[in-house]
Write a structure and sequence with these properties.
By secondary structure, the protein is of the alpha/beta class. It is built from 16 helices and 14 strands. Helix content is about 30%, strand content about 25%. β2 and β3 (about 35-45) form a beta hairpin. The model is unreliable at about 65-80 (pLDDT under 50).
Length: about 450
């Protein structure tokens, strides 16, 4: 992960005073997720460039949340990903740790430099930029934005303009994570304060201040609503709508009850929200949660309070670590299985293995599948065109694509399929969540 900052006016080596770093030295800082280095590859009288190089340890980053070091996710995505090279909120953390005085507008030896508007150029080699969002974000701040494609989802980004270095760094610190749309650490009230502090001179008048606020704060209404009010944006009164995840969970439980299921597999159970719902209903006599991530299973155990459950309730629930793309014959014989918001996290070339494991080997009487409806993404104002709803999604299906996949699975494995939706139905684009119920047919 790399950020370069260039000053192009004599004496250009004033950049060293601005950053509080001597251009003839290499400066190292240890970070919780890796290490940062500041050096000056160019330090001449007419042009000086400082480079902030951030080395991210993706395995160490995972172990911060999963001390066991066990595999995360449905693939190697938690360990092998774009975090070491693509700009994200981790760069903002590194800027704060290594260039904090410049970020806050201080230059101890040359305070007049910190107050001056200077000809600057900032560049990063790889950042997510769906639908030209970088121009929307940085253009209104007076930056000339140049992007160069470096892959299907990433661009090299170059900003040129005249500004105080502190303003440039605050814009970078806020807007690059907004482009990436994924915070890699806990987002709490202090993050809202940080957003308003660093964006205080420009955010209130930015034409996309609502998008910036919601993305930066990861769509947490309890944080975004007061932050937007402080920015002068009216927030609709009244009770908030029922979250889609709750509607989805209720729809899944209703389908399981309708099917008369008693022994249920939650495949890709995550932190156990559906398991907790099923455990509250004595009609479900056995619920088994399976996930590849040990950390997720530990959180599920805490949510379910397994250590505190009475023996009768404890005997009804089980947590197992396992992968859905590998055959597990011990999963055969259950009444129903749930794949809720799971398939989109699986690499497309492994979907056939998942289908074989679930529909050919485990072969429950009923399988309930939910997945995002990509067409409905157009109704999310904070989602850039062509962007997916979550950074770990490998794909998102249209209604036609989901229908084709479920119909193929049903025909191949002897199931009937019924499809529907969850959430507010858009007359043109359908519901935000797609749902399918596959029911095993009796063998002839």
């Amino acid at each position: 992960m790399l950020l370069t900052i260039t000053l192009a006016r004599r004496p250009a080596t004033d950049l060293g005073y601005l950053l509080g770093k001597h251009p003839d030295r290499v400066h190292h800082t240890t970070l919780a997720f890796g290490a940062a280095t500041v050096c000056f590859p160019v330090a001449g009288p007419d042009r000086c460039t400082a480079a902030l190089v951030v080395e991210v340890d993706p395995v160490g980053l995972v172990r911060r949340f999963d001390p066991s070091g066990s595999p995360e996710g449905f693939s190697l995505g938690q360990h092998v990903n774009d975090r070491p090279y693509a700009v994200s909120s981790l760069l903002s953390v590194a800027i704060s740790r290594t260039l904090g005085s410049a970020l806050h507008g201080r230059a101890r030896e040359r305070p007049e430099l910190a107050a001056a508007a200077l000809p600057l150029e900032l560049a990063v080699p790889a950042v997510r930029d769906a639908g030209g969002l970088a121009e929307r974000l940085f253009g209104p701040l007076g930056w000339r934005v140049t992007t160069t494609p470096v892959g299907p989802r990433h661009v090299g980004l170059r900003l040129t303009g005249t500004a105080r270095l502190a303003d440039a760094l605050s814009a970078i610190s806020v807007l690059l994570p907004v482009l990436d749309d994924a915070k890699h650490h806990y987002v709490g009230p202090d993050e809202a304060d940080k957003l308003l502090r660093f964006g205080g001179t420009w955010l209130a008048t930015h034409p996309d201040r609502e998008l910036v606020t919601r993305r930066y704060l990861r769509y947490r209404r309890r944080l975004t609503a007061p932050a937007l009010e402080r920015l002068g944006v009216e927030v609709a009164d009244g009770p908030p709508a029922t979250p889609l995840r709750e509607l989805r969970r209720a729809a899944v439980v209703a389908e399981l009850r309708s099917a008369g299921a008693r022994r249920v597999l939650d495949l890709g159970c995550g932190e156990g929200a559906l398991l907790a719902e099923l455990l509250r209903d004595p009609a479900f006599t056995e619920v088994v949660g399976i996930d590849t991530a040990a950390a997720a299973l530990e959180r599920a155990a805490r949510l379910l309070r397994l250590d505190e459950l009475p023996p009768a309730a404890r005997s009804r629930v089980e947590l197992r670590q396992g992968s859905l793309v590998y055959t597990d014959r011990s999963l055969a014989g259950y009444d129903a299985a749930v794949l809720s918001e799971v398939v989109e996290h699986v690499e497309p070339d492994r979907l056939a293995s998942l289908a074989h494991s679930v529909f050919a080997v485990a072969r429950p009487a009923t399988v309930v599948v939910t997945t995002p409806n990509r067409e409905h993404n157009a109704r999310y104002p904070d989602l850039a065109p062509a962007a997916l709803r979550h950074p770990d999604h490998r794909f998102e299906w249209t209604r036609a694509e989901f229908a084709a996949w479920t119909s193929t699975i049903a025909a191949a494995h002897g199931y009937r399929v019924r499809r529907g939706g969850v959430g507010e139905l858009d007359p043109e684009l359908g519901a935000p969540t797609q749902l399918a119920v596959l029911t095993r047919q009796a063998r002839a």
